[in-house]
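tmp note - J domain-containing protein
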Amino acid sequence: MERLESWKLALERLRSAQSGDWAEAGRLVAEIARMSSDVTLRLAAEQALPVLRQAVDNDDHSVTLAARRRVGVVLDVVHDLTAPRFGRRNAMPKKLSSEDRARRMLGLPLAVQLTCEDINQAYRRAAKSTHPDHGGNAQAFIDLAAARDILIHPGAYKEA
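out:
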């Protein structure tokens, strides 16, 4: 993380400079490409290297503009890696209730009031692809029918 912060500061300094020191930028980006453990950052740095090397002794405005853009791309990746993450890290996703699992299996929205007709239409739609006579799996078809029953009669089935 320390290395990312130092790369971030150096890249921001290079990008904000009026006249770019492209030799320094090339050295920094080569270091990033060589030492980064993140695949995306390494790829962005490797793609920026040829343009930065071309810009070293080149007064062409389009080449320096491309080099500035490439430094910006590498800087954006570094920003993404150093940005704070919210939420609980490594937390397991919340388990779905049996009704929510049934809704997901039938392709129905989770937080919408459903009628029996909505449930049956979704069941027919899903059954076309899972029915054993149409090349589907018998167990998947049985699970689909159970999902429909859970949604039509919600109180009859206890939480699994």
